[in-house]
Every structure is written in structure tokens, then in C-alpha cells.
Predict the 3D structure of the following.
Amino acid sequence: MSAPRPTFRVMKNGYDRFAVDDAVEKYVASIERLEKKAELYERKIQDLNTQMDSMKQEYLRMKNSSEAEKQAADNIARISLREANDIIATAQKNADMIIHEAILTARLILADLSRLYTDANEAKKVSAKQLEDLLQQLEAFKMPQMPDLRWLEEAEKKMQE
């Protein structure tokens, strides 16, 4: 959008000097106004460039911080996983040891029970034999004959007389 071209009256030695001076003054004023706007825009551009540089630095700092935090989180996750695997391996070893000890204890208890069962069976046989012998002795035992109690009654009567 350009301004319309000025037209000047033609005079004896050229154009109308006052009209040309007015046009030149308008152009000079317009140029000064445009130069001030350009200067203002240049300062705004510098400010915006400064802000953009500051934002870029902040972005890079945040990006580096984020990467460092991500790396730290990855390290923590890796260490945690390693420790969890160590704990699981230790627990497995402990469980295996406990099971092994329980099996050994159970084996000892079963051996003791077997021995006790054998001993009890032998004691039962011995007791049965002793009972059988006792029964035979009881059967063989003969009670002495009881004396006739009539003589005692007769003796008592004699004493009373």
C-alpha cells in the first residue's frame, strides 16, 4: 500500500517550490517516523532475542536436568532390581537350607519312631510271654485244702462249757 505520487504545478523555472518543499517535508517526517518505528522494532527484536536466548538456556538446563534425573532414576531402578534379585537368591538359598534341615530332622524322627515301634513290639512280646507264664503258674497253683471248720466249732463249744 503505497502513498499516491504527488503532482506539482509546473512553473517558469521548474515546479512549484512550496509544493515540492511541503512534499519533501512530509516525506522527511514519514521517513523519521518510519526510522523511529524501525528503531523501536529493532530494540524489541533484540529484547525478544535476549529472551529467546535466556529461554534456550533455561530449556537446555531443564533438558540436562531432566536427562540427569532420568539417568538417576534408571540407575536406581537397575540397583533396586539387582538388590531384589540378590534378596530373592538369598531367600531361595535359605528356603533350600530350611527344607534340607527339615528333611534331616524328619528322617531322625522317623528313625526314632521306628526304633520305638520295634522296642514297643519287643516289649509287647516279652510282656505277652510273661503273662502267659504267669497264667500257667496260676493254673498250676493248687490251693491247699481247707481244714474242716467243724473241729473249730467243737473246740469253741468246749471252751464255753
Remarks:
- The chain has a mean pLDDT of 88.
